[in-house]
Amino acid sequence: MKQKTWPDRSDGVRFTAFPLSKPNDNEENIILSRRSKIGSKPSLSPTDGPDFSALPFDILTKIAASFNFPNLLAASLVCRSWRDALRPLREAMMLLRYGKRFKHGRGGVRRNLDKALDSFLKGAARGSTLAMVDAGLIYWERGLKEEAIALYQKAAALGDPAGQCNLGISYLHAQPQNHKEAVKWLHQASIGGYTRAQYQLALCLHQGLGVHRNLYEAAKWYLKAAEGGYVRAMYNASLCYSSVVGLSQSRRQARKWMRRAADRGHSKA
């Protein structure tokens, strides 16, 4: 597949979703019951520590909306109140798992995007931003961009980096385009360490899309994304070092990043 790297107005990154852990069907109930029986301790009195159960359910579910299964499971073990509050999100994780099976034709089922979308939407209705993003991906691929953007907006507002990144990319490609909103959400995901967003933000800064053209800032974000393992950013960071674009010329650094890009399969490196 041909890769676009150095800034081009048609350049874009395929929307992405966080990978999902794959627990066994009964893993949640088994682990929760096992951990509640083994090593259980008497509950602490209010003077011994904070009362976690006092946290309102709506705030807790918003905080945990972007959790993956291991983190959600760990949070469910804090106290009974959290376990009850997070039940819809644990159900959403199961629905997300089924949806990915249908989307990719894994786990003994045939690929079926309609069933995948149905599972993702049910997971999204239970508050999972991961499910919102996956449902948005299918909507976007089907040309239903308004529906996709609506889901990305919900996920982004709840702090999901993939949702923020996809929302930013959506604003770059939707009609009409909204470059300022794109930069806003790409920056939000970038400061959270999301490498695809960092690369896309660097492209916007390099081209002057939605923001004043700033080669220094562009190079900085290329380098951050490269250090985070994003291959296209490695290639562009090498070009920045060799062409003196926002970075001091360094043949050694240019060779290093070009070599890393090549080792990871970049077609132009």
Automatic annotation (TrEMBL):
PANTHER family: OS04G0476000 PROTEIN (PTHR45088:SF1), OSJNBA0022H21.17 PROTEIN (PTHR45088)
Gene3D superfamilies assigned to the protein according to its UniProt record, in alphabetical order: 1.20.1280.50, Tetratricopeptide repeat domain
F-box domain mapped to chain residues: 49-96
One Pfam short name: Sel1
Protein name in the entry: F-box protein At1g70590
Residue ranges of the TM segments: none
Signal sequence range: none
InterPro entries: F-box-like_dom_sf, F-box_dom, F-box_motif, Sel1-like, TPR-like_helical_dom_sf
Native species: Gossypium hirsutum
Lineage: Eukaryota, Viridiplantae, Streptophyta, Embryophyta, Tracheophyta
